[in-house]
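Subject: Sanity check before I submit

Could someone independently write out the structure tokens for this chain? I want to compare against mine line by line before I put it in a report. The sequence has 358 residues.
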Amino acid sequence: MKITSVETVILDGQFPFVFVNTDEGMVGVGECFRRQPAVTKTVIDSVLAPALIGKDPVDTEARFRDMAKQGNALEIGGAIWIGIAGLDIALWDLKGKELGLPIYQLLGGKVRDKVPVYASSLKRDMTPIEEARRAEYYVDQGYRAYKLHSAVPGKIDDTSDQTISTVTEVRKAVGDDIDILVDVNGAYSVHRSIEVGRQLEQLGVFHFEEPRPHYDLEGLAKVADALDIPIASGEMIYSHYEYYELITRGKVDIIQPDIVKTPGFTTFIKIASMADTLGIPITCHNTQPTISTVAHAHFAVATPGVPYEQEYNIEPCSIRDEYPILSDPLNITNGFLEVPDGPGLGIELDMDMVRKLS
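---
Independent answer below. Compare away.
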């Protein structure tokens, strides 16, 4: 089987998807991170796709090296890795289809039957009471964990921050048996991170995400050393080399790769092996609730080092809710996501809807 062409489409003006076509009529599908989709499309069409044409998609490691070399990825990073991410997912989809196996079997087989997911609230304009009511609603739907995004991204120690009052109200609403996760997107100084972190410990928060930006490894290490609450980070980095630095120098307790940024299954395998060696668990970052969610689910269900609930975006998403592109919606029941069992990713796209949104 040989790759004959690569098509990049931007759905609903914001979601970049890739289709890798072959001489046997088989098509692999992948998704890239959604920001700056026009840049991602240019990178794929102009730089990465030419490195794949005429080659065997089943040789995923070799194709990854081809793309990384073609894009000078270790030197340029960012947009190159994001483009490679979507293409790598598509290649693994093709590998599974060619072999007649779901991706989770290619990754070694299931270590759990379903993937527990947490309700991830990305809104920042709710009062503490409103957030508490929202958390209570999702707990009533069967979720056993809830993440809130607080503080003021882009500012440091802003006085309008309501993190502690919000977590206090959420804890009152959901009780002591529900995990609460807090993400502040690097909005605190080191001393404020430690001050807030100690209060979050008293409130029984499960993890404290990005108290300092990912690049402040020294600051993250100071926060991690001062607190007992697990520190999580990783959504803003790409290569397994950066994750090694985040773990060894940043001293984070949980890493959070995102498969549509951290490039695909090929990189996730390397990160999982390294994290296992270093004794660090993984909780995937995931805000895109279609192909990205499916890809993360295959990884999570097959990887022992992914023991916790995984992120599921509860905010409105056009290609899931208003114009669904999946022929069959993903099944989440009582906070557990069922992983598709078909070959590759195991999903079918509504191509009429895809064409309509392209």
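---
OP: Matches mine. For the report I'm noting this point. The two ends are 27 Å apart (CA to CA).
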